[in-house]
Write a structure and sequence with these properties.
The protein contains 16 helices and no strands. Helix 6 packs across helix 10 and helix 7 packs parallel to helix 12. The longest helix is centred in the middle third of the chain and has 31 residues. The radius of gyration is 20 Å and the shape is globular. The chain starts with 5 loop residues before the first helix and ends with a helix.
């Protein structure tokens, strides 16, 4: 039976955490890295093989990645969860937190059902390295298209976000979270500003309604194909439906959390079955790096997408995807 080494766990774990949030496809990298390195890596890290311990390892990485994302958005998730239960208790959907909770639920249903029914089929058929390389190219083209063919509504939303950030926050937003005084630390000030920005973003997102959320959520189905980025296609879908780039990124990250959690938790028994035996340490090490990578990535990207575009990620996807395909198909 193949095994999993600590160097493999270290590298793949960190790459998983970073690429899950960057619009670069973590599954595509999980398939391509072992194939490009070759040797024992290709044997140990075969995602399409039903008996590979790599499957148990990936389960651990997914759970850790979701924990890393939640650690960054924990204040937001407290508001959203409270909003969800308050909507059930009062039988109403009135506040932005209540509306956002139900928008996330509606947007998650399509990919959840598709994943439960077709995940294994997609993994076996499309988890082939050469195909993953081509889908990575397709991912780049989707990101290019998202920027090239942005709607006027989306670009106007960008200007609205910038104008709102320059205006003085509303009184109820200023009081949100911990008070920030004149002697508050720079970190506290930054977190307070992020909290205000998050609440403003949620208000803009919920103004689009449940149908738009469902349409944007359907884009996540493409991420079942190795090489297509969940956050990338969700951002593209959000921008196509009129969200600003920053709001599309936030909504994509919020949508990713329950999907990644569910994908990991549904297969947690795999960790304690035959596939997980003997690699408990590797799973732990890889999961820690994956969680840290996810947290750092989302923290960076939430600031990045305020002023920058998807284009660098599109270029990376096309170049790396073509290079991997040529190597795997004609050189290796």
């Amino acid at each position: 039976m193949s095994h999993l080494t600590y160097p493999e766990a270290l590298i793949v774990g960190f790459v998983q955490g970073v690429t899950e949030l960057f619009p670069l496809s973590s599954l595509g990298h999980n398939v391509l890295i072992p194939a490009m390195v070759g040797g024992s890596w290709a044997t140990d890290l075969n995602v399409a093989k039903a008996s590979s311990p790599y499957l148990a390892f990936i389960v651990g990485l997914h759970v850790a990645t979701a924990i890393g994302i939640t650690a960054y958005f924990w204040r937001d998730w407290v508001r959203i969860i409270v909003g969800f239960f308050s909507s059930l208790r009062h039988m109403e959907i009135e506040t932005p937190d209540q509306k956002l909770a139900w928008m996330i639920i509606f947007a998650t249903i399509p990919v959840g059902l598709t994943g439960v029914i077709f995940e294994k089929t997609f993994r076996i058929i499309f988890g082939v390295p050469s195909r993953a390389a081509l889908f990575l190219v397709a991912n780049g083209l989707i990101l290019f298209a998202a920027e090239k063919f942005r709607t006027r509504r989306s670009m106007a939303a960008d200007r609205e976000v910038m104008a709102e950030r320059q205006r003085k926050p509303e009184p109820e937003l200023v009081g949100a979270g911990a008070p920030v005084g004149a002697h508050a630390s720079g970190h506290r000030v930054e977190r307070h500003e992020e909290l205000i920005s998050a609440i403003q973003s949620d208000r803009r997102i919920v103004s689009y309604g449940y149908l738009e959320a469902l349409i944007i959520g359907c884009a996540q189905i493409l991420a079942l194909l190795a090489g297509i980025s969940r956050d990338g296609v969700t951002m593209a879908g959000g921008m196509f439906r009129g969200l600003s780039r920053e709001d599309a990124a936030r909504f994509a990250f919020l949508l990713a959390t329950p999907v990644i959690f569910a994908a990991g938790l549904l297969k947690v028994p795999t960790l304690f079955g035959p596939l997980g035996r003997g690699i408990e340490g590797q799973i732990l090490v890889g999961s820690v790096l994956s969680g840290v990578g996810a947290y750092l990535s989302v923290r960076f990207l939430m600031k990045y997408f305020r002023t920058r575009t998807l284009t660098p990620f599109a270029i990376y996807s096309v170049i790396i995807g073509l290079a991997c395909f040529v190597y795997l198909a004609f050189i290796k």
